[in-house]
Every structure is written in C-alpha cells, then in structure tokens.
From TrEMBL:
Domain of life: Archaea
Protein name: SAM-dependent methyltransferase
Any Gene Ontology biological process: methylation
Species lineage: Archaea, Methanobacteriati, Methanobacteriota, Stenosarchaea group, Halobacteria
Record flagged with keyword Electron transport: no
Keywords: Methyltransferase, Transferase
Amino acid sequence: MSAREEFDSWAAEGRDKGMEDRHWHTAKHVLARMPVEAGETVVDLGTGSGYALRALRETADIGRGYGLDGAPEMARNAASYTDDDAIGFLVGDFDALPVADNSVDHVFSMEAFYYARDPSHTLEEIRRILRPGGTFYCAVNYYEENEASHTWQDNIAIEMTRWNRAEYREAFRDAGLHVAEQDTIADREIDIPPAEAFPTDDWETRAAMVDRYRTWGTLLTVGVTP
Ligand SMILES: C[S@@+](CC[C@H](N)C(=O)[O-])C[C@H]1O[C@@H](n2cnc3c(N)ncnc32)[C@H](O)[C@@H]1O
C-alpha cells in the first residue's frame, strides 16, 4: 500500500483529529521553541490535520503557512478546518518538495519524517527550500532509543526509517544543516494508570508505558541552514 492510500483512509476515518490530539502533547512544546517571527513563511511536512500552522498563526503571527501532505484526503480535511487565507495545503511527496529554492524561513514536521522513502534526500530538499539561517524542527516518536515504538512498523505497510539520535544528527550534517539542538520531549499529559491496572490492552507493564512517554517521548532534532 502507498503512503497516499494508507493515509487517505486514515483521513476518511477521521484519524487526523485523533493524531492531532495525541501529538499536541509534545508538538506544542516543539512549536513554542521555534524562533519564528511575525510575517515569516513556514512549511509543515506531513501536516495531517494542519494544527501546527493554525497554532503558529495564532501564537507567532506567521505570514504564510504551507502544509504539505502526500494524502489528498488529509490535505482536504486540513483545508476544511480553517478559513485563514494565509494558510494553504498542498499535496506532494517528501521526495520532491513543490517549493522554490531559498523561499522558506522554517520547516516543521511532527511524526512524519520517517515515512520518507529516502530521508537523506528529503533533508537535502529541506536544505534547498530554506533560506540562509532557516530552521528545520524535526519531531519524531519512532526512533531507535524509543524501544516501545519498534513494533509500529508491524502495523503499517509503508516502510519506516528508524534512526537513532546520532544518525539523525549525522544525516542533518550530511545534508548541509548545522545541528543546533537535539532533545527528547516527554509527554507529561498522557494518563498513565496505576500499577495495578497493568497489563492493559496496549501495555504489558507500567514501566514500559512510563519509558515510552515520560522517558523518551518525542525526539526533536533542530537543523539550521548556514
Ligand atoms: C502520522 S501522520 C502525522 C500528521 C501530523 N503531523 C500530526 O502531528 O498529527 C503522518 C502524515 O505524513 C504524511 N506522509 C507520510 N508519508 C509522506 C510522504 N512520503 N510525503 C508526504 N506526506 C507524507 C501522511 O499522509 C500523514 O498525514
């Protein structure tokens, strides 16, 4: 199954909003760290419901936001959640970003980058579209150190790239981005039941759930163009 088919069906089932609810716990901290100034242009890669751009319009007064998604139904849903003319949604693939060279101030991506067919090439594409001094805020929950995430590949037909923290830094540098920051952002909002509630449908032990959300959470790697 292609990413387009897989995520079109997610959008049709309304799972875009479910992702927004879950990802917001840590995505909002990533967005708050971005050095975005009023009037700047931001691209959101794998935008899903488009919540990131709606938030940046409210909190940072961005001038233009473009949400790119490979699934037309995702982009269509995202467009339906806002009537803000400064935000637009594009259908496109991480392989070839439909964006001009040196035209974007910041790129954000939450829980999407590892679906790229060739993530190293996607980093080159990001480097190409960013202006000098532009930033890429790359947030992922599927990564090597987050052991609980390893099983996710079993539930999805699209091949996912599972880099570790060092591999993210190395790939950013290989694409010509300086690594300004790398951090893990814990999910402090998800409810973790008391020990006696385990095992649950999703978790064998409380310790495993704590490790997934409170210890590892979301890996943020920040790249800056020279
Ligand atoms: C797990 S969702 C995350 C959505 C949103 N960023 C969030 O935080 O809720 C991943 C998104 O990336 C998109 N996507 C996956 N592979 C893609 C690709 N190769 N090119 C463009 N978009 C892609 C999917 O259609 C989906 O909307």
